[in-house]
Amino acid sequence: MNKPNQEDTEAVVVSNRTAPNGKGGALVVQGNKGKKWSIEASEELYRINGWGEPYFSINADGDVTVSPKGDRGGSLDLFELVEALRQRNLGLPLLIRFSDILEDRIERLNACFAKAIARYKYPGVYRGVFPVKCNQERHLIEDIVKFGEPYKFGLEAGSKPELTIALATLKTPGALVICNGYKDREYIETAILATRLGQTPIIVIEQLEEVQLAIEASKHLGIAPILGVRAKLRSRGIGHWGSSTGDRAKFGLSIPEIIRATDELNAAGMLDCLQLLHFHIGSQISSISVIKEAIREASQIYVELAKLGANMKYLDVGGGLAVDYDGSKTNFHASKNYGMQNYANDIVAEVKEACTERNLPVPTLISESGRAIASHQSVLIFDVLGTSEVRTTAPEPSEEEEHLILRNLYETYESIDADNYQEAYHDAFQFKEEATSLFNFGYLTLRERAKAEQLFWACCSKILTITREQKYVPDDLEDLEKIMASIYYINLSVFKSAPDSWAIDQLFPIMPIHRLEEEPTRRATLADLTCDSDGKIDQFIDLLDVKSLLELHPLKPGEPYYLGMFLTGAYQEIMGNLHNLFGDTNAIHINMTPNGYEIEHVVKGDTMTEVLGYVQYDSEDMVESIRQQTEQALKEGRITIAESQLLLQNYERSLRRYTYLTT
Ligand SMILES: *Cc1c(COP(=O)(O)O)cnc(C)c1O
Predict the structure, then answer these.
(1) Using a 6 Å cutoff on CB, does residue 154 contact ligand 1?
(2) Do the beta carbons of residue 402 and residue 444 sit within 8 Å?
(3) pLDDT-derived band of residue 27, with 50, 70 and 90 as boundaries?
């Protein structure tokens, strides 16, 4: 058998990630004093070529460009697009979807399988499906169906509500509707009846009880369904979703249960309905060896089921095809050490080998890739409302004789150089502590204490400029960068727009979408609009491990500063919640045209009235309550007519508006 070999697969560096900093120091961003900052330097810093290719890059103006059709031409300046959208009164945060990217992802996945099938002379076909749970938004699902039509691309439902979406939307003859998730009689009956509409639903048995439900429903309706079984494989994913399989997994049948299912179907004379084997070992499988092992195990179960008399025709490898969020091409959880072509090659080759050895016809291959299809198409744009920075300039020494502690701090500050910076740091720290004690005992005024603290920060800043030039930073100064970091306040709710960043520490690439020709001189964490201390982002992609600070530009007065969060198209929208009542963001669908782009749909974000409605408030009642209170206040002379009108106007207007801040 031909084994997939590396030469025509995407170039990957297979390496195990290890923490970059062994003992006693940290790698720091090299300062580049004297060197002029360049767009190439921004590319390297934000790793945009790693995670963005072929859709995102930086243009000569220093803005992020989007090439939604990949390498096939047509691009737009993301910064200019955002400005144009703002002129249309679309406030930030904005979720921008590029349908052409979605189309490109679907084409790529199908092309990879087609190539693998040709290469290994696989005598069967690939019929992918999109798992609806990954992003249920109507325009997106409709697009997937449309773009998938040439490939008979289908949909996967993980619940009864998702089945209703799949059945109403999918009209491609021959495309599959894979019915996963927990099922009741109604779910199973609906799926079976859909065969009468010309659909091809496959009911995947996830629980043993579903076997009898399917047998009864089929007998009752007189229609033979296509059934599948979901196997709990021994091969496990790694990382967050590692527990999606294995003996104690939530879903699927163990091997003894699979045997029981086939016996029950056999007894009912329905073993020929069992045609599919399904497995799903978890999402974001970052290591190709895990995928290979799973395919090998599943292929054996497949051929054994055929030997038991099942009419096997389909093998469904589930999801798990990963996205390289940090662009490092490693088996780190935010990355993957294989390309889409590797993935297809390995599946096709393994399955062919298993079937050929047993002289069995090969199955139609199905994958349920969600993340790999939907992530790239949406970009979240948000603005920075303000920053909080440590003041780093030293206060002017006063004319008069100052307190000894202040004189010591001045002296330390003046003396700092490349030879004594470590010692100087400890001195400054010591003096600052002493200043606090002196203050507590009444020997230092508030103004003097302020001066002492300011001097300490000035020392730190001076030391930091020195350590940034060093290749090696002593342990005790490692946190200096963090302590000195700025906080950038962003017009966004992490809970609404990037819930996985909060809930499971998922990394998404984040970078400014303009000013990339300029050196980003600030190091910052991001704080969101919610009054929750978890509403922050302090983990960012990096080549080595994860970094706790993001390099950003200082704000310019009167100018907006836009950041983009990329690869957010999978799972984030539906998982987002209404913490602090920040609602859905505005969403815009962009299509490329021969002369540029067009705005295909605008889906307005939630207004306050809508969000309040979710928690059973009626905005008219609320306005009425305020009106009555103003009347009372007027009667008692606590408010003027003009004030009461202004209050009511503001109150009513807010209710009609976006939940985010307008800048
Ligand atoms: C979630 C899920 C998928 C999608 O997984 P991705 O990693 O996003 O591709 C596919 N199949 C099943 C059964 C799932 O539960």
Answers:
(1) no
(2) no
(3) very low
